[in-house]
């Protein structure tokens, strides 16, 4: 009977998630905020709650532990709280991203509860803390106009933290990752994006690009030395993407990729642990008792699960090494099914699209680069983890955002999305002033144009720029302030 | 542009995931390292394995108290082909493990079983093995050690696979400790696919083809056999020191003249010779999902005269599996095309409805059609006027090559026969027989092949 419930629920969950995913893409055709879009969001929310209830029914049926229902109740309260934050406190946030966050968090809770109740509980606690913290993030972004002044602070903190990991962190799983249970590289990702955005948002000459690139390369090299290849790759790709968008010069992009490929080749020659990963990727079964074990187990899980999955508690996700974090995608695919897993990929891509969408609509180059950089961090991390688990690319050991167990990862991802939401709200503000400006008196418009002409940086005065290089942080801060006022006025 | 780039990499992720699930997962999850099979067993009664002619080769008997035991009605006869499930897995039991533990019973039946908390019946694996042929081969080999492989050249279906010494899978658990503790015991080894033997004169098929490639079909080869030949102080004897006298190429092949072929070997372009051997699947994993060993052929361009002469007549360092030799014989019969050997024909649910059919799949041509025709003529000569004349004058047409592969210094040998037979309205079959310590192929292996041919061609299937 329990088996029957599990089987039935399995299909119900797949259908619910498929419908949810379908809506994630059809809603793109609707104008945001239109009644039709609102209705779709409501249906998505309905899918989330029903899927959640369904999963916990199965969990209860299989464990017969009452605490599961208590935990379930707490999660429902949490999700409602999350909706409340974003819906009420920040009226203009994008509902689609909030839905995605909730859905992915719920999936994470489900699979973690199934794998290890204690871990699920810890994950839940962190999610609560992160949710509370992220209340203030959009607020901060709207109020803190000085974010772009701290260029070198970001870089110094980033390099010091990563350096500390390299020097002091114990080796776990072949890499140096964490100090006192905190994985700084997760947070440095955000700081790094801020740093790169500060440096690049009005960059025009090669010297500044060179300096930025050297600092970026320093981040990447420390990570490589710590053997945190996944993070190193994320930093690298994020930087290349930001550089390209800031300069619009495809040469940087192609050159960067070429350089990266070259570096990868050299790394493959120099470091044995890189070779092991690549060997395991080429043929995990050749050395199944050694380096290939992880990937092979992951493939067993995904393959055995098939399209429909084994059903919760019917598989053996425990046989996969670290099923709760790096290989959570395999555990989900095994028990909840390949279709479900595909939907996760699609939802993650939808998340990424939303961030790009936001980035494209932001006029301020600084915010645009941040949105884009953070979006890239997220999108590329999803690619690395899912690609690694499915043996599409060599495994690099990164987490699946929102779903994988890991305090640093979860906290960082929620803040990352809070920032993106903050930027989205900013965009909405821009949009509103846009509407206003159409009805505003003409005299003001004239003044606006005048100010725009005076805007340094925008019109670009290379000579001056070079002279000011020495105090760039300070200077830029002032400039950007100016920019911002301009924006307010222009629009 | 960034959007499209990421769209592309996400599409790659999705495409790869689908590709894996559709094309790769079956092979992957069948790995013996995948411990998940036992999970299925909690909800499914392991399915039957049956022969292509409907005989049950393995079944799970459920006792009244729910205990399950695996029963093999034919005991030793299918021991290596069907394999075992306790103490590890082998044979079809291993290869089709997941298939046997999946149930495609009618879905209402499955729901009823779930409600009553009863197990579903696993799917049935229908093998390509033909009970009649297996029995003929098994009986013909008698109490001698060795192996027989029979396959259908046009499809790659394995019709029989016998390996001796064998074991009774029904009582394997009890015998296990004594088998494993006895280091000399090789009863668990499937000699048909994993046994590595010197090919002896059967390797002259390869040597002959290389000679023809270099010298043409209408070569003016003549040789006066005096029972042995000497070069650089190395002496090669014909079997039993027989003196074959004046002979042409076809006769030398038919009579399996070692002196002639050792001499031929010395003229060959060793590089091309080795590359032909590689083309004919030496030093390669055989294209099949069966567990096999790689056949070996090595002859460097700096090889000594003795080594070259030995290799040319199938001694030296060359080693082959019987399955490999059957595939070569099959390719000759099939116009040079090797079909991938397979042993599972289809999967059915417990109601006999096919769930999945395994289709023949082509590996490719290892030799040209013309060359296959030339070798056919040579191998027919072996039956009409040579060492396998016991197969002539039958209701079917047989062709092949015998071999006597020396395995010790005293000249004791294993007997080989590899070849094929054809008859109107019958599919051709190819066969490889090795009789350990059987002496000459003519006296030991050919009679086994004959019994298999007789059974196959003289009874209507």
TrEMBL record, chain A:
One of its GO terms (biological process) is regulation of cell shape. The chain crosses the membrane at residues 12-28, 40-63, 69-89, 96-115, 121-141, 153-175, 187-203, 215-245, 251-271, 292-316, 336-357, 369-390, 402-426. It is found in: Membrane. Its main location: membrane. Residues 434-491 are annotated as: Disordered. GO terms for cellular component: cell division site; plasma membrane. One of its GO terms (molecular function) is lipid-linked peptidoglycan transporter activity. Keywords: Cell shape, Membrane, Transmembrane, Transmembrane helix. It is a multi-pass membrane protein. This is FtsW/RodA/SpoVE family cell cycle protein. It comes from Candidatus Eubacterium avistercoris.
């Amino acid at each position: 009977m329990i088996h029957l419930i599990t089987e039935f629920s399995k299909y119900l969950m797949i259908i619910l998630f498929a419908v949810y995913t379908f809506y994630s893409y059809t809603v793109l055709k609707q104008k945001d905020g239109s009644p039709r879009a609102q209705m779709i969001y409501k249906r998505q929310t309905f899918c989330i709650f029903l899927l959640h209830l369904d999963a916990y029914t199965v969990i209860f049926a299989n464990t017969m532990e009452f605490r599961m229902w208590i935990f379930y109740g707490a999660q429902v309260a949490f999700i409602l709280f999350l909706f409340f934050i974003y819906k009420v406190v920040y009226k203009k946030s994008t509902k689609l991203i909030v839905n995605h966050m909730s859905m992915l968090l719920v999936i994470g809770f489900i699979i973690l509860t199934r794998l290890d109740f204690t871990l699920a509980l810890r994950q839940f606690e962190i999610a609560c803390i992160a949710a509370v913290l992220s209340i203030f993030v959009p607020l901060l972004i709207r109020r803190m106009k000085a974010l772009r002044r701290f260029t070198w602070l970001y870089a110094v903190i980033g390099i010091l933290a990563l350096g500390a990991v390299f020097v002091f962190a114990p080796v776990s799983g072949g890499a140096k990752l964490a100090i006192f249970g905190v994985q700084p590289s997760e947070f440095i990702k955000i700081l790094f994006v801020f740093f790169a955005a500060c440096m690049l948002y009005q960059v025009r000459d090669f010297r500044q690009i060179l300096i930025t690139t050297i600092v970026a390369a320093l981040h990447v090299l420390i990570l490589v030395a710590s053997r945190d290849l996944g993070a190193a790759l994320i930093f690298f790709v994020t930087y290349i993407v930001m550089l390209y968008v800031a300069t619009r010069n495809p040469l940087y992009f192609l050159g960067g990729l070429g350089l990266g490929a070259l570096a990868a080749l050299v790394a493959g020659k120099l470091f044995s642990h890189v070779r092991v990963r690549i060997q395991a990727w080429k043929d995990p079964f050749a050395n199944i008792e050694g380096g290939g074990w992880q990937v092979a187990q992951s493939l067993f899980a995904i393959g055995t699960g098939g399209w429909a999955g084994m059903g919760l508690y019917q598989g053996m996700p425990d046989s996969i090494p670290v099923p709760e974090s790096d290989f959570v995608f395999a555990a989900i695919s095994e028990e909840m099914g390949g279709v479900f897993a595909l939907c996760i990929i699609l939802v993650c891509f939808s998340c990424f699209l939303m961030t790009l969408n936001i980035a494209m609509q932001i006029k301020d180059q600084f915010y645009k680069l941040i949105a884009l950089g953070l979006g890239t961090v997220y999108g590329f991390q999803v690619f690395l983890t899912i690609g690694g688990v499915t043996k599409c690319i060599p495994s690099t050991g990164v987490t699946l955002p929102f779903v994988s167990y890991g305090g640093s990862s979860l906290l960082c991802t929620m803040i990352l999305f809070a920032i993106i939401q903050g930027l989205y709200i900013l965009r909405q503000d821009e949009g509103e002033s846009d509407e206003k400006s159409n009805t505003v008196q003409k005299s003001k418009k004239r003044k606006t144009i005048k100010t725009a002409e005076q805007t340094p940086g925008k019109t670009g005065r290379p000579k001056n720029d070079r002279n000011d290089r020495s105090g760039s942080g300070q200077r830029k801060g002032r400039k950007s302030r100016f920019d911002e006022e301009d924006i307010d006025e222009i629009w | 542009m960034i959007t499209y780039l990421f769209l592309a990499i996400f599409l790659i992720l999705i495409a790869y995931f689908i590709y894996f699930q559709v094309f790769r997962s079956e092979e992957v999850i069948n790995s013996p390292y995948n411990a998940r099979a036992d999970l299925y067993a909690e909800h499914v009664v392991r399915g039957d394995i049956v022969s292509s002619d409907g005989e049950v080769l393995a079944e799970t008997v459920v006792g009244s108290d729910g205990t399950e035991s695996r029963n093999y009605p034919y005991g030793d006869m299918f021991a290596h082909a069907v394999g075992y499930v306790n103490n590890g897995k082998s044979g079809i039991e291993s290869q089709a493990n997941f298939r046997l533990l999946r149930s495609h019973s009618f879905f209402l039946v499955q729901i009823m079983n779930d409600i009553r908390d009863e197990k579903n019946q696993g799917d049935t694996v229908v093998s390509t093995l033909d009970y009649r042929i297996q029995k003929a081969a098994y009986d013909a080999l008698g109490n001698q050690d060795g192996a027989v492989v029979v396959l259908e050249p046009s499809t790659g279906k394995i019709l029989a696979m016998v390996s001796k010494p064998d074991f009774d899978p029904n009582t394997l658990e009890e015998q296990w400790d004594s088998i494993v503790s006895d280091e000399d015991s090789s009863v668990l080894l499937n000699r048909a696919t994993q046994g590595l033997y010197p090919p002896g004169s059967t390797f002259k098929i390869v040597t002959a083809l290389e000679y023809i490639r270099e010298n043409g079909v209408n070569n003016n080869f003549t040789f006066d056999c005096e029972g042995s030949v000497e070069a650089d102080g190395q002496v090669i004897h014909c079997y039993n020191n027989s003196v074959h006298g004046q002979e042409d190429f076809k006769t030398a092949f038919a009579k399996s003249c070692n002196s002639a072929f050792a001499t031929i070997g010395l003229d060959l372009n060793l590089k091309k010779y080795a590359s032909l051997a590689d083309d004919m699947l030496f030093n390669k994993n055989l294209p099949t999902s069966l567990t096999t060993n790689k056949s070996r052929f090595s002859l460097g361009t700096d090889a000594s005269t003795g080594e070259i002469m030995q290799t040319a007549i199938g001694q030296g360092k060359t080693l082959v599996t019987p399955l490999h030799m059957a595939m070569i014989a099959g390719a000759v019969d099939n116009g040079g095309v090797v079909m991938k050997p397979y042993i599972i024909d289809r999967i059915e649910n417990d109601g006999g409805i096919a769930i999945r059919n395994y289709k023949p799949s082509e590996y490719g041509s290892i030799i040209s059609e013309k060359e296959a025709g030339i070798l056919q003529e040579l191998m027919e000569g072996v039956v009409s006027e040579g060492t396998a004349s016991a197969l002539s004058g039958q209701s079917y047409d047989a062709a092949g090559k015998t071999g006597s592969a020396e395995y010790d210094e005293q000249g004791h040998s294993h007997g080989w026969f590899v070849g094929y037979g054809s008859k109107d309205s019958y599919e051709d079959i190819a066969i490889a027989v090795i009789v350990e310590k059987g002496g000459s192929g003519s006296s030991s292996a050919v009679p086994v092949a004959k019994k298999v041919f007789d059974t196959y061609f003289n009874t209507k299937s």
